[in-house]
Design brief:
24 strands; 4-stranded antiparallel beta sheet; 4 helices
Length: 357
């Protein structure tokens, strides 16, 4: 049976693969044929091969309060965070539905990961009680619905490393409810809704950064229980193919600092921004860093960065409390472009992930 009346099957499918990502939940309810076609893995392969996929940057972003005094004290009220989506290609901004049972906003410092057509939200601190959460939620962009995933095993942990290889979500480090730094690690299989424990890391790592780079899960920086906020320079790398940790990279970081600025672009390069020099730097061997560009002056505070292929997007402000500005960088020509941002999407960003749908 034809997908679209009057058109042969192949032409109808070509029409469907060109639908915008936010219309698929409606399209699957049109008829059984459309739903069956859209649910096929082959449909998404054809959409990708035809260059019709859309890149989305999903963020935990604070609601911007225009009445809040700019440059005010950092403790002047706890901001409410929600999930926002920016599509860099069309520069459109949207907000995702609230997490089930979380009408007061997202858990503070929760982590995001992209797995296929799913967004995974895990962990964080309750914005009212500040209790650590082990909850996992999965949002499917085709059905536009949330479901509960299996809770993270073990004690509730906060400020852990998290990254995805597009199939599974890897978690390591952080601290427990008694502020003890952790060396344990685990992986979440989204399709099976199942957690598998990994071997422990060699070191405890609180406030570490997770990056999936060249087929390996990198756990960067952090500090031990005894160090309490004094960051180290080392990193540990989990080799997924061999299912084991490599030797510790003692001098992975060029300075003992918070590693939150590190991002991978999916093509073999790692980027970071330096608050001291105001520059974006790049490496492909974790040893030699080269300057890519200077950051625009009005995003030097609370800067957050996302990378994909030859592009970067940075979000930040000139000073605390001001609306956040957004820029994209074309790495080839080293040119920044300011992104039009509605006021309601100009709040602080805690975490993000890149999706392709």
């Amino acid at each position: 049976m034809d997908l679209i009346s009057g058109l042969n099957y192949d032409v109808g499918r070509e029409c469907l693969i060109r639908l915008p990502y936010d219309t698929f939940s409606s399209a699957t309810s049109v008829c059984k044929n459309w739903r069956g076609e859209i649910e096929l893995p082959e449909f998404w392969r054809r959409r990708r091969d035809a260059g019709m996929t859309q890149r989305l940057i999903v963020m935990t972003q604070a609601r911007f309060d225009p009445t809040r005094k700019q440059g005010g004290m950092k403790n002047s009220g706890v901001p409410v965070y929600r999930l926002t989506v920016c599509e860099p290609g069309s520069v459109t901004w949207t907000e995702l539905p609230l997490l089930p049972g979380h009408l007061d906003g997202l858990p503070m410092f929760c982590q995001l990961a992209a797995v296929g057509l799913n967004l995974v939200v895990m962990g964080g601190l309750d914005p009212v009680t500040w209790d650590a959460s082990s909850e996992v939620f999965v949002y499917n962009f085709v059905s536009a619905t949330w479901k509960r995933g299996a809770n993270m095993p073990g004690c509730p942990r906060s400020f852990f490393a998290c990254a995805s290889d597009s199939r599974m979500v890897f978690v390591a480090g952080g601290h427990d409810c008694d502020k003890n730094a952790l060396k344990s690690a685990m992986v979440y299989d989204v399709a099976a809704d199942k957690w598998v424990l990994l071997p422990d890391m060699a070191n405890e790592r609180d406030e570490c950064k997770g990056v999936f780079h060249l087929g390996k899960f990198h756990v960067i920086g952090g500090y031990t229980t005894e160090m309490q906020g004094r960051f180290g320079r080392s990193a540990e790398v989990f080799d997924v193919a061999r299912w084991r940790w490599d030797e510790v990279y003692e001098n992975f970081l060029d300075a003992a600092t918070c590693p939150r600025s590190y991002v991978d672009n999916g093509d073999g390069n790692v980027y970071k921004w330096s608050s001291s020099s105001g520059e974006v730097l790049m490496t492909n061997d974790s040893a030699t860093w080269q300057v890519v560009a200077e950051l625009p002056s009005d995003v030097l505070t609370s800067t957050h960065m996302t990378a994909w292929q030859e592009k970067l997007m940075v979000i930040g402000s000139h000073r605390f409390g001001e609306p956040h500005k957004v820029y994209t960088l074309d790495i080839k020509n080293r040119k920044w472009t300011k992104v039009a941002t509605p006021e309601e999407f100009s709040g602080h960003v805690q975490s993000s992930c890149l999706m392709e749908i």
